[in-house]
User: What shape does this take?
Amino acid sequence: MATFVIVHGAWGGGWEWSPVAGLLREHGHRVFTPTLTGMGERAHLSPREPVGLGTHIDDIVAVLEFERLRDVVLCAASYGGLPATGAAGRAADRVRLLVYIDGLVPVPGRPALDLFPAGFAALVRDGIAEHGPAWRMPMPPGLFDALIPAGSVPEAVRQDYRSRIRAHPAATFTEPIGLTGALESVPRAFVRCTADEWAEQAGGDPVAASAARARDAGWPYREIGVGHDPQVFDADGIAQLLTELAAPASRA
Assistant: This one.
């Protein structure tokens, strides 16, 4: 059985992946769903200090080290692709597979903002200029409704999800990522969410370039016909895909 560590995306928390974790555990896997500093149930931490990408990388590396985890399938959703990639580079000996779940694949030496549409990047830069480097960015107006439209899931589920969204530490978007050569020893895979109507609200699809890079690199590549948050729309389906990719004979 596999050991999964699932890293959530922007504005979220480990709580997002609890249903998927439960399904994986039912099949005997070990699963960890850490929440990154300043988010979810950790939103109260360091409210007056900038929380950068390096802190989120430290968060993941700490889970791997303190839980004594090895042979890990490290899964990275959306923004989580950045800190998970940094962590995989620092702890390559502990990670046997890095799976991007509609995740951002970072470019060495460049910040997350370089991967986002220009309009979103401008919102981040303007907010930091106005409020300072410790500013936490609320989810842009209309984005939640684009990601999880009314009627796509039961309304009670949708509102419960909305109630747990928290502002995201903006400095994580502006800090360039430094990657070590050790990352090249870590096999990688990509799961693409193909229902991308939400991207219009974001001013473009920030994941498209990462998905193209994954295909060009020849990584194992899977598709799931739901929106950007598969844990919301098809927990069973994404759990099955992760299980398949974690099996050595299936990574092709």
Q: What stands out?
A: The chain has ten helices and eight strands.
